[in-house]
Write a structure and sequence with these properties.
Jelly Rolls; mainly beta; 481 residues; Tachylectin-2, Chain A; single chain; six-stranded antiparallel sheet; binds beta-D-fructofuranose
């Protein structure tokens, strides 16, 4: 690996070699964040799925460990989760360490079923349960991606499972015997494709002490705001057996508006360990994932995001996402830090010295622009660029990847939109650039927008521009990471 491998993100997780898609089995135990990932260890395209494994103490530096789970006679290893079995409900614990139990789909043609495996050495080695599968296929073609959590009021594990066009809930005292509870979703949300990778968790509503809601996140393989795959969510109540949705049946709420954000799930949350609810997605798109330019690996994860709920002015409850604070520790040099920075037509401000990775924070008051459009270009040395443009008239944020100089699939180029979100007349954009990834958070994280971009060369500079007019930035902060 060269010092700066073209396209390989620096602070987003990528496997050292070969293919990855969904993040799997994320749990936190004794100071380590564990990340497993859908992995083909033998090729740079999707193939027989294994679980790759990596650990981190800070969510931004990852150490890859040997492959954790390999295919067997029941099938390949599809997506799933892992939990710390604090009370040894499974009876699998053999030593002093708490036992970790992974729950995952085994895939065989049209027969998907759920299996478990356990680890008594902090996730280093795994034993598959002899009684697998623990949830047999009831005759449903897409029957996968279990996410399990401990539901304290009934002292049971709860599983949410994707079943073609809906999710099903199951419950278990010991992670081995599972009982069907209920289903949700056939008549709710977006159904442009099959449902995959669900997650269910409870979050507090910011600023409303004591008020909380359950969030059900579900990936859908087609029909996202900019076409193709995306992650929708539902806000509601969960009583241990049934999920009751509070947003309109026909309404789809989207976790992210970008082209490259899928299979998002959260780290296993436990009563004694991690307090935060952290989400991670595969920052890629099935439409072209198998062809993205990369050298020794293919596929990356998003930045980890801390979640909470917020009530909008019109009373709706929405998900908000904040990149984890740990990323701020990567700031190595201030490239610009200014107030009242005026950018006029044809007088862009260039920021050189970006070696693939940067963080940019822009704040603009709605009264301070007299321009049709303004924004940011990310460039290589040859003049190829990816742009992000703010259009206050149509209230759209646009990412344009038509001029990146690299073409590998007809679903890659294009112009993509996200809504603009203003807080008290201010637009705040928190932008993360990392080789081939552009993640934008608006406001307090009410909107997020994740897209890959492939320039011909390395990212070497960025440019703040205004078209036909001028914009006055209240503050601009740019850091090399
Ligand atoms: C989502 C998905 C899952 C499945 C896995 C297979 O991206 O299709 O539903 O478990 O990928 O790799």
């Amino acid at each position: 690996m060269t010092l700066r491998e073209l396209y390989r993100p620096k602070y987003h997780f990528t496997p050292q070699k070969n293919w990855t898609n969904d993040p799997n089995g994320m749990f936190y135990y004794k100071g380590e964040y564990h990340l497993f990932f859908q992995h083909n260890p033998n090729d740079k395209v999707w193939g027989p799925m294994h679980w790759g494994h990596a650990v981190s103490t800070d969510l931004v530096h990852w150490e890859e460990l040997p492959v954790a789970l390999e295919p067997d006679s029941l099938g390949t290893i599809f997506s799933g989760c892992a939990v710390v079995d604090w009370e040894n409900t499974s009876g699998f614990q053999t030593g002093q360490e708490k036992v970790i139990v992974a729950v995952f789909t085994q895939h065989e043609d049209d027969n998907e079923k759920q299996s478990i495996a356990y680890s008594n050495d902090r996730g280093r080695t795994w034993v598959k349960y002899k009684g697998n599968p623990v949830v047999k296929n009831p005759g449903i073609k897409d029957f996968r991606d279990p996410k399990v959590f401990w539901y304290a009021p009934s002292e049971r594990w709860t599983m949410v499972l994707a079943c073609h066009d809906r999710v099903r809930f199951y419950s278990s005292p010991d992670l081995k015997s599972w009982e069907y509870l209920s289903e949700f979703g056939q008549d709710h949300g977006a159904h442009g494709g099959v449902w995959e990778c669900p997650d269910l968790f409870r979050l507090n509503i910011e600023g409303n002490p004591g008020e909380a809601r359950w969030v059900l996140a579900v990936s859908v393989s087609n029909g996202a705001p900019n076409g193709g795959p995306g992650v929708q969510y539902f806000i509601g109540q969960f009583d241990g057996s049934t999920f009751t949705c509070e947003n309109y049946e026909s309404q789809a709420l989207w976790v992210d508006y970008g082209r490259d954000f899928y299979a998002a799930v959260t780290w296993h949350h436990d009563p004694f360990g991690m307090e935060r609810r952290i989400l991670l997605a595969w920052a890629n798109n099935w439409e072209y994932a198998n062809c993205i330019p990369a050298s020794s690996w293919r596929g990356a994860m998003s930045v980890p995001r801390e979640l909470s709920l917020s009530r909008t002015k019109d009373g709706n409850i929405i998900l908000v996402q904040k990149p984890v604070d740990e990323i701020m520790n990567l700031r190595k040099k201030v490239l610009i830090s200014g107030r009242n920075l005026l950018i006029a037509d044809n007088k862009p401000i260039s920021i050189t010295d970006i070696e693939d990775a940067a963080e940019i924070i822009l704040k603009i008051s709605v009264d301070d622009f007299k321009t049709e459009e303004f924004g940011l270009r990310i460039l290589d040395d040859m003049g190829n660029f990816c742009s992000m443009t703010v259009d206050m008239e149509s209230m759209k944020l646009t990412v344009d990847r038509n001029n990146t100089g690299v073409q590998f699939h007809d679903r890659y180029p294009g112009v993509f939109h996200a809504p603009i979100c203003l807080n008290e007349n201010e637009l705040k954009l928190h932008i993360f650039i990392d080789s081939s990834l552009l993640e934008i958070f608006e406001g307090d994280g009410q909107v997020s927008f994740t897209n890959q971009f492939f320039l011909k060369g390395h990212v070497s500079q960025a440019e703040l521009f205004a078209l036909k007019g001028q914009v006055l930035y209240k503050t601009v902060e740019i850091y090399a990471l």
